[in-house]
Design a protein that fits this description.
Blueprint: H1 2-27, H2 31-35, H3 40-50, H4 63-78, E1 91-94, E2 107-114, E3 119-129, H5 145-167, E4 174-181, H6 189-197, E5 206-212, E6 228-232, H7 239-251, E7 256-258, H8 276-280, E8 286-290, H9 309-328
Parallel strand pairs: 3-4, 3-5, 5-8, 6-7
Antiparallel strand pairs: 1-2, 2-4, 6-8
Protein name: Aminopeptidase
Signal peptide: 1-23
Domain Peptidase M28: 109-321
Length: 336
């Protein structure tokens, strides 16, 4: 009996050492390793498909939008990134009535996730809209490569990076949700449905929303200094989020962060015009990542050949680094 007791003590000690080592490994994971899996070439390959004429401008409820949701779903299935809805079911169905006459058919959000290892009930949502404005009256396809094909493929690459970390034993402490919303172009309907009608993850446990809407181009203001990105909303609900975001940028990709459109008196009112707003109105801290408008905005000429893929890579990596920090820091963000 004494020998059995001694063996039990040794076993418990070994398990304790193993758990300590696992925690140490988690703390020493290098996010740069996984950020480097986000590449311009992969983003380009995906976007040339997603913003092709085959997708018919991805108008909410129409055939091209249905192709888009299956493209996104297949990406998650191929990378073994599960859905939080049900096994193999990535679509959050939205009835046609919800669109108040602005769409002719029902539509879908697409949702995938990576479960947190230590605080799985706390959630970081990374969002982008999957829809665009369809085919123009002249029969030309509005491809929406920047708006918001760039955000869509950005999320897919970020998801791959987190999955690679998980495979190496470095799952995020908090859950990461990859939310592709429909109906943005006709009134932010997909994100509103998620937050107001059917939040798959409780809003009170949602730590932050990082929303990506147009990050592949350069606007007129920055033609001479393109290493930039507009950030909107980062300090509206949490000064801590703004501080974390700024410090992560400086420590990693070091973009020029432009807060022009974050001004509460901004006449463009971009803070209210993309999907992050439906999270912000529920008191969830947000960042809206945006390259500004350009001459091809909402035109058939918003095509994938005009995307600056090295810039798209760098900007996507910034969002990954920020999500990594928010997911792995000890305390959740304070709302002040």
């Amino acid at each position: 009996m004494k020998q059995i007791g001694l063996l039990l003590i040794v076993f418990i000690a070994l398990c304790s050492c193993s758990n300590s080592q696992n925690k140490k490994n988690q703390n020493t994971a290098n996010p740069e390793t996984y950020a480097n899996t986000i590449t311009a070439n992969e983003l380009k390959d995906m976007l040339y498909t997603y913003a092709s004429n085959d997708f018919e401008g991805r108008k909410t409820g129409e055939a091209g939008q249905k192709k888009a949701i299956h493209f996104i779903k297949d990406h998650y299935i191929n990378n073994n990134i599960p859905s939080p809805i049900a096994t193999g079911d990535y679509f959050q169905e939205i009835p046609v009535e919800y669109f108040k006459g602005r769409a002719s058919n029902a539509s879908e959000n697409v949702i995938a996730y990576i479960k947190g290892s230590e605080k799985p009930d706390e959630v970081i949502v990374i969002s982008a809209h999957l829809d665009h404005i369809g085919i123009s009256s002249t029969g030309e396809v509005n491809n929406g490569a920047d708006d918001d094909g760039s955000g869509t493929v950005g999320i897919l690459e970020i998801a791959e990076a987190f999955k690679a970390a998980e495979k190496d034993g470095f799952a995020p402490k908090r859950t990461i949700v990859f939310l592709h919303v429909t109906g943005e172009e006709i009134g932010l309907f997909g994100s509103k449905y998620y937050t107001d009608e059917d939040p798959i993850f409780p809003l009170e446990h949602t730590v932050a929303n990082l929303n990506i809407d147009m990050i592949g181009r350069v606007d007129e203001k920055h033609e001479g200094q393109p290493n930039y990105l507009y950030l909107i909303g980062s300090d509206r609900l949490s000064t801590e989020l703004h501080t974390v975001s700024d410090s992560i940028n400086k420590a990693t990709v070091n973009l020029e962060l432009d807060y022009t459109f974050n001004d509460e008196n901004d006449p463009n009112r971009f803070y209210y015009r993309s999907d992050h707003y439906n999270f912000a109105k529920h008191n969830i801290p947000v960042i809206f990542y945006f390259n500004g408008t350009h001459a091809d905005y909402h035109k058939p000429s918003d095509t994938p050949d005009k995307i600056n893929y090295p810039f798209l890579e760098t900007r996507t990596r910034l969002i990954f680094y920020t999500a990594w920090e928010l997911a792995n820091r000890e305390e959740r963000l304070k709302v002040d």
